Amino acid sequence: MEVPFFPTLFSCVRNLVVKQPLFPVLEEWLVNHPKIHEFSWNNGKTPGSSQRFLTLTVLSYISFTFILSQVSRPSLARPVLKSISAVHNIFLVILSFIMALGCLVSIFSQVPNFKTLVCFPKRTSPSGPLFFWGYIFYLSKIVEFMDTLLIILGKSMKRLSFLHVYHHSMVVVMSYVCVDSAQSSFSMVLVTNCAVHVVMYAYYLMCTLGVHPKWKKMVTDCQLVQFWASFLIMAMLVFYHFTGSGCSGILSWCFNAAFIVSLLFLFSDFHAKNYSTKVKPKYA
């Protein structure tokens, strides 16, 4: 059985994109490069792939965040802090854009149809371009821990909320689980998340440079739309899983579904509290 509308839309968009003159160039660099095309995730061998590394990384982040938020700290000169923040935000804008583009080009190059995009066949191994970008995505979430350090160094403790710490720590776990279990549909979530992060870190960069755009609320709105889109994707995954021969990574899907539900509630609460009262603290 097929989900109506989406397979036809995917086929039309794919056929249109691959005919563009720039596509072969992007495909050569973002899909067929040997380091990308021949990538294989080997648990315990690929850097950062062991469960011990994941556990120590997340626990260290939570511990250091708690400790640094409680002890007295020397203040960084404001120009130095602004410079570090600007470099950090520029890096994540560029990286998020490259990850979204790389994964999107890989989808159009490697995935034959919409059903395969949503539902990887059982026993799919985490190798090839899609999982390379999933691996880079996982590592990028560790880089994003720098967000928290910048908040602490800037002594903006009101911005160090439960949502911020929970989101930053658990999204690393989610990303790891997606790649390690070869979870179906993760590439769609990667593209939407990276697209939102391009907007979000661009906003933070502008604020760092002294420009305060009026579209901050739109950043949170984009996050909420992303979560609802994730629910739609997950619903289609379940449909294909139970109407076909099964999908890869269905158990990890259960974990990630629960995580996304929790984020939806937390971000919705943030949205209601901040934009109904006109208070504008920076969120996670």
UniProtKB/TrEMBL annotation:
<feature type="transmembrane region" description="Helical">
    <location>
        <begin position="90"/>
        <end position="111"/>
    </location>
</feature>
<keyword id="KW-0472">Membrane</keyword>
<feature type="transmembrane region" description="Helical">
    <location>
        <begin position="185"/>
        <end position="204"/>
    </location>
</feature>
<keyword id="KW-0444">Lipid biosynthesis</keyword>
<feature type="transmembrane region" description="Helical">
    <location>
        <begin position="131"/>
        <end position="153"/>
    </location>
</feature>
<keyword id="KW-0276">Fatty acid metabolism</keyword>
<dbReference type="GO" id="GO:0030148">
    <property type="term" value="P:sphingolipid biosynthetic process"/>
</dbReference>
<keyword id="KW-0275">Fatty acid biosynthesis</keyword>
<keyword id="KW-0808">Transferase</keyword>
<keyword id="KW-0812">Transmembrane</keyword>
<feature type="transmembrane region" description="Helical">
    <location>
        <begin position="249"/>
        <end position="268"/>
    </location>
</feature>
<dbReference type="GO" id="GO:0042761">
    <property type="term" value="P:very long-chain fatty acid biosynthetic process"/>
</dbReference>
<feature type="transmembrane region" description="Helical">
    <location>
        <begin position="51"/>
        <end position="69"/>
    </location>
</feature>
<protein>
    <submittedName>
        <fullName>Pathoproteinsis-related thaumatin superfamily protein, putative isoform 1</fullName>
    </submittedName>
</protein>
<dbReference type="GO" id="GO:0034625">
    <property type="term" value="P:fatty acid elongation, monounsaturated fatty acid"/>
</dbReference>
<dbReference type="GO" id="GO:0009922">
    <property type="term" value="F:fatty acid elongase activity"/>
</dbReference>
<keyword id="KW-1133">Transmembrane helix</keyword>
<dbReference type="GO" id="GO:0019367">
    <property type="term" value="P:fatty acid elongation, saturated fatty acid"/>
</dbReference>
<dbReference type="GO" id="GO:0034626">
    <property type="term" value="P:fatty acid elongation, polyunsaturated fatty acid"/>
</dbReference>
<dbReference type="InterPro" id="IPR002076">
    <property type="entry name" value="ELO_fam"/>
</dbReference>
<dbReference type="GO" id="GO:0005789">
    <property type="term" value="C:endoplasmic reticulum membrane"/>
</dbReference>
<feature type="transmembrane region" description="Helical">
    <location>
        <begin position="160"/>
        <end position="179"/>
    </location>
</feature>
<dbReference type="Pfam" id="PF01151">
    <property type="entry name" value="ELO"/>
</dbReference>
<feature type="transmembrane region" description="Helical">
    <location>
        <begin position="224"/>
        <end position="243"/>
    </location>
</feature>
<dbReference type="InterPro" id="IPR030457">
    <property type="entry name" value="ELO_CS"/>
</dbReference>
<keyword id="KW-0443">Lipid metabolism</keyword>
